[in-house]
């Protein structure tokens, strides 16, 4: 029976939510069974309250908060949990020496600020791409060009990247760009996948925290971002203590110009966003419909509202001038009381869900958006085809399977299965999408199997799960805690990204490998190796800096206190064996790597001047600094480039100022 | 026949050196056989010269320099090269899910500035330890304490760490500290292995580049560093253009206070250093005995001098006041002409070797120092027992096997074998130490086998090879180029750290795994897991900051324009739901993580204030900033800590200044 046919009493949903909290409290109240960690009961202010009271009083914080770290231990549904030791089914993630991985994995690095490129199935880190951080290995944030980009992009030296998204053409990855958000500072960055480097950062006005981030399928018309934190608009200190005037925003950024196009003001805090496959709907999870400012207030009510943004309707509102301009950006009013939401085609539809849902993922064929319950043990399936005509939950909720405790994210294998991460149960649950539509709400009938993971998973991703044609085979569970899984490395332990073989069909899930991850990957996305076309040598036409030849190498005085030093690099030699500048000179140093051979990188390091940057074959980089301290400074090559690499040096002589 | 018995004509050594260059040129002149890289012949100024002339004219640079990048291809001694595909002998580096690695590997990160902790045999990166770089994942360089340490340690935001060294007691690793050098800025850092974090950085006076770095065995009396770049002393701009007055220094730093104790001035450029096992000798390789300032000049002569530092003799000179004080440091004159080198017990012995040797490693029993030839195809074995009585090469050179082209580093398995990396041949050569002593100089008789690596190895390390009791079993070859070994990731490709099984005895070497490495690991060192005792929760007694309890949480105005904000963290809650400061206030924010459970880290991020740092269980961290911009800022937790992690926030309200 489809949910369209038998609408269910919304109170049942609330009951399920209460059951969840009961289960959580049962775990917490029985520490002897639950854990060997002596301190696991620390900080549980809600324990003296009755269970119902606990939830109603809005102090779920302590109890829910305490669950991380003990889930190794019980497994809410342990009878369904499979062994963590790999079976002998033959699934191997070994990539033999010299063989290539089959897939690129792009991992957001969380508050490390970087992206990581990881090969699948080997799980080897192939490279890092600095985005919001600085990186002295490559010179990102050290050269003039990257420094300017970071400065114009907000001037911060870190960011919190969460959701990497590959650009799409016709609903498939085109291999051109990757877009990722900075939750901390409300930014969106673009990474060029020809050169694997960040080429644009947009500091979105009016938004403090962009959490959810996705591209609008099928042709990357926009990069969309969810403003999570509610703040005054504009946030200039006026009315700062009046939360009634706080707001949160949804934003559209142009993927080519990277300029902010428009924003939509909504009620509550936005969380995660994904789009349908036809360019119309962006579905955002949201919490804090109470619009409170503390955690007790944020968890007081029973419901929250998922937001369905109608992109063409928003565009029409902008075109019609139905917006307020704030800091140069058209801001459309998408709150529930807005006149734009009163007509036949509201700009935003609000769909009630159980309290504080977490992720939204749209399935491969675009029929359903899957909203993981977090505090509810269910996944709510929104019928995107029904959405145009209604926002009544009885009409648009297509299914709501009970999957386990703490469901956060869902991914797909393209064979009709969904896989949901269970943060509290520390499991991946595999379930049948059609069976969930046909089953009663809250039923476990669609569940196929559960796989223990270690421990407390956030995102999970299967191969190309966000396209219209997922590849199945492998799934990665990004677990936030590793606890006892690796050699101890001090108090800050790695995360644990686990590789799970999911085959192509009904085959069992099999945990194949643990991989430690430096804090703190948030999400990942996979592309088949044939969809990425990385260049190994720079094309001069692809950058603005002037290519320097060996004949160009020299020092040109450009002003009374400024010089331009040009020099080439090739194996074992800089274009200038030495050069002289005057104390106080502003020195612009331009360097071209004239090598034509792949993988012959040279580094340009200036001791005691905080300068180091890489120059790849046929690339040119520049750095500007002031020569403040008289003396001899040996510029040297930091990339081991040849047998005489050690001897590869230039000598900068800074002559004392006269007098 | 031992070399002690039959001293050899030094000219024979020169002939071998010339043979090497002949071999290199043969490779370079036959590009069709050598490579599929069209541009491999780029930049070979020496090609129009005869081979002997080439060497004599000192333009080896171009030819030697061009070899990197083509060695995949020929293999100077390819008949001896083994297959790169692993055999079916059963050596596996797989560590099953949940199982632990057997060894900690500590990788220097080169100009990434960080250390990396990698498990052996899985080759998984367990964590990173920021040292000379900043790191927003942990907040290294963001908190007051780490900022101050980096500022006092020179104020640079990057470094080039090369040689990680574990502290020793009785010649074995005691698991307390790791010391590593910064080649770029002449610094030495210490990493605390209880907490896996950098706890001291010393900016050594008078030295621009510390390249070689080791601890004085057997009890870590000093951390020793080789100053590589020659510069005026002091380097203040006077006499900067007169290389005759340049000098390079050897330094001793106290491992506890981390203060510079003394320096020794020598001729030529120092390279790598290792010590004997009895606390007397430090052996340094060196190049540029010509004391030239360009690469042609540095490769003009036929010989260089290895330096043997007599540590007790140097200490005696310091005690006797036989030094010049420069920038507060006693500098002992260890140049060849110094009066301190004229008596019975010189402070430094100069031992002639073939031109531009590279590494020095002292073997497990302390009998020999192994000096890899780089430009010579040989490894020179110095007899440390004979060194006290003589520096005559005929008496102290115990053997000189011909091992292959471009030998750079040697490691040991504790079973009488040495393994030398061959940069140009792209191989690891295994040879018998005693057989090399008994053979003629320049003989290949001691060679057991060669293993192809991919490509161009620098350091190699076997398990605990630097102790008196190496563990054999595994060896890692740190190859500088990966070229075709991994999925392409743009022009800056990863290095390739290859894991080779070497067994315990005469068993064949077997290449087991390729592992991509972000640029640019330089060296590594391994310790059995039982030798490291990492804490998982902080001990309050181990830090200076004041522990904050929930009762302490609050805001204290400490001055007209300054406040001290104290707050705790625990799962889902900061100690303060909000706090208010005034525009322009200097805010000191102190945070204690009151969790007692391992692996529950909280992060403290302040949007648009460039602040993020981690606080591990029972740890306290502080940050000081100015609240410049009025508005509402949501402080949030960056470490996914619980089911209600997303709701874990505090709210900073910055009120506008009056008027």
Automatic annotation (TrEMBL), chains A, B:
Q: Where in the cell is it found?
A: Periplasm
Where composition is biased (Acidic residues), the residues are: 12-21, 29-40
Q: Which GO terms describe its molecular function?
A: calcium ion binding; copper ion binding; cytochrome-c oxidase activity; nitrous-oxide reductase activity
Q: Where is the composition biased (Basic and acidic residues)?
A: 1-11
Q: Which GO terms describe its cellular component?
A: membrane; periplasmic space
Q: Report biased composition (Low complexity) as residue ranges.
A: 73-92
Which superkingdom does the taxonomy of this entry point to?
Archaea
Q: Does the keyword Hydrolase apply?
A: no
Broad class of where this protein is predominantly found:
periplasm
The UniProt keyword set, sorted, is:
Calcium, Copper, Metal-binding, Oxidoreductase, Periplasm, Signal
Q: Name one Pfam family in it.
A: nos_propeller
Cofactor(s) demanded:
Cu cation; Ca(2+)
Q: Which CDD domains match?
A: N2OR_C
EC class (word) = oxidoreductase
GO-annotated biological processes: denitrification pathway
InterPro entries per the UniProt record, alphabetical: CcO_II-like_C, Cupredoxin, N2O_reductase_N, N2OR_C, NO_Rdtase, Nos_propeller, NOS_propeller_2, NosZ/Cyto_c_oxidase_sub2
According to the record, the residues making up region (Disordered) are 1-43, 73-97
PANTHER family with a match to the protein in the record: CYTOCHROME C OXIDASE SUBUNIT II (PTHR42838), NITROUS-OXIDE REDUCTASE (PTHR42838:SF2)
UniProt record similarity statement: In the C-terminal section; belongs to the cytochrome c oxidase subunit 2 family.
Complex and partners: Homodimer.
Summarizing the function annotation, the protein's role is: Nitrous-oxide reductase is part of a bacterial respiratory system which is activated under anaerobic conditions in the presence of nitrate or nitrous oxide.
Protein name stated in the entry: Nitrous-oxide reductase
Q: What is the gene called?
A: nosZ
